[in-house]
């Protein structure tokens, strides 16, 4: 490796004095570099000195109200990441209690930062989330009293407007212990007994609209109920109390497939398969993927393989989800699986939605059957489904050129018939693809030849000049 390559070994050879001079030189005009160098100098003086500098910077960031433009966002992200690194990797290893307090202050800074920066790319949030996760390893080493910690956690959970403290109970459960978790539960109980506090900052008209939109009474009451439920569930989860977790759902809640699945999977994890199956109840056609997962897992845990297989087949027939069929076939003995797969494909060819059937055959994959489906049910293809037809045409063009052409024609016809000018460019490209494959197709069968198809387009859409200009 060249001795001029910028790496630690080569730079070390310059010597400490020369490196110091260079750092002073490159830091001129860069507040970011100067700030980092000062932090490194403070670290040499001990965690307390570094903590003072970090705390000053956090106060400065909290007090700032100016909007952060997209040009300055990257610098802000680096600044936040640096402060987090100083706390978690420099201060906390030497003084865990001090590191814990600083990390708490850093996470509490998040709302003021979110309010003045566009974080649509999630970069700022990533810094805070990564820092928050470090509570898990820092807290057990810090000197934390369970009951004061419970009150601190509860205050954070109540004022968690940006989700900055999401999951904090789970992260701090080992430090809270049974005493802290019990204290936290008591704080939730006391909060539940308190009367609703009207939000002084919310205009009466806005509050009325919120209440009207909620459809279930007070917006504030709903928010309070959600906070109580989510907190109790996180406490129950930390305590390993599945029944207490599920008890926070109403009977009506448990009729929702996703909620029922969540509860059933927790029961399964506790080895309570029959309870899980009883909670789920029989299939009613309203299932979703997670409900199906829980239902099948419950049946298998109870040794009801035939029931699980029947559900897989029924759900495959209802959704054409390849995963159900793969799981179904995997259980069958040799040769039986081949027969079952043939039966499934015959079902797909007759499926009421030809577009869904085509998608299945592409994902399975079976290009021969996909081509057959396209040629036999061409009139049912929806040219608006370019996300299916475009990859279908590309997959089929080499071995099944006629089927590929029919996919392109479906999209061309849709764009021109519906006057979708934004798609004319793509439609023109598709027509040229059709022309390129014309020589590969010896027999169009009942379909128009390429020349005849173009003549028909001319007759019907001659005035769509932007399309024809694209074709040339």
Can you tag this structure with a few keywords?
single chain, about 475 residues, mainly alpha, about 0% strand, extended, DUF6880
In short:
The protein has 472 residues and is an all-alpha fold. The protein is built from 27 helices and no strands. Among the domains are: 18-143; 352-472, no CATH class.
Distance between the termini: 55 Å
Which of globular, elongated, flat, extended, rod-shaped describes the shape?
A: extended
Strand runs, count: 0
Would you tell me the overall average pLDDT?
91
Unreliably modeled segments: none
Describe the largest sheet: none
**DSSP helical segment count:** 27
Helix content: over 70%
Q: What is the N-to-C order of secondary-structure elements (H for helix, E for strand)?
A: HHHHHHHHHHHHHHHHHHHHHHHHHHH
Structural class: mainly alpha
Strand content: under 5%
- Rg calc: 32 Å
Give a description of the structure.
There is one protein chain. This protein is an all-alpha fold and 472 residues long. Among the domains are: 18-143; 352-472, no CATH class. Helices cover 71% and strands 0% of the residues. The chain is built from 27 helices and no strands. Helix 15 (257-269) packs parallel to helix 17 and helix 22 (367-376) crosses helix 24.
